[in-house]
Amino acid sequence: MATVADGDAGATAGMVMAEADSTPGSVLRVGRDAALCRLVTPDDWLFVSRVHLEFRCGPGGEWSLNWLRGSQDDPASEVRLRVGAAQGPGRPVPYGGVAELPRGASGEVVVLDRSGPRTVNIGFYQEN
User: Fold this and answer.
1) 72: Cβ contacts below 8 Å, ≥ 6 apart
2) What is the DSSP letter of 71?
3) Helices (H) and strands (E) in the chain, counts
4) What angle do CA 90, 112, 102 make, to 5 degrees?
5) pTM of the shown model
6) DSSP code of residue 105
7) Across the strands, what pairs with 53?
8) What is the residue-level pLDDT of the chain in tens, covering all 128 positions?
């Protein structure tokens, strides 16, 4: 999985790679807290929670995406899931919700800042 963070306000784009085996119980977290997350966004990107997303491997080796609820009732971001080569905005993931990632598929998860042009894009690829 990879994340690319970019903004129109002169933010530096960065790419980080993280790999996780499809071992039941494996977890990969995305957020601002480097002590808890393997994919970390800048500290001042407050539209991303300290621990924002969690990719979790289930008992059969299938992966799911969990948008963890933060301290606010109304999130400062949106999360969307695109599978395959699909263009467009993607399918919304509900705040506090779970989306299954199809086996043998690739795509991306996009975290959009509701107050500005910043996004975090997390690409994923899952083998069968």
Assistant:
1) none
2) S
3) 0, 11
4) 35
5) 0.84
6) -
7) 30, 67
8) 444 444 443 344 455 667 777 889 999 999 999 999 999 999 999 999 999 999 999 999 899 999 999 888 999 999 999 998 767 788 999 999 999 998 888 899 999 999 988 899 898 887 76
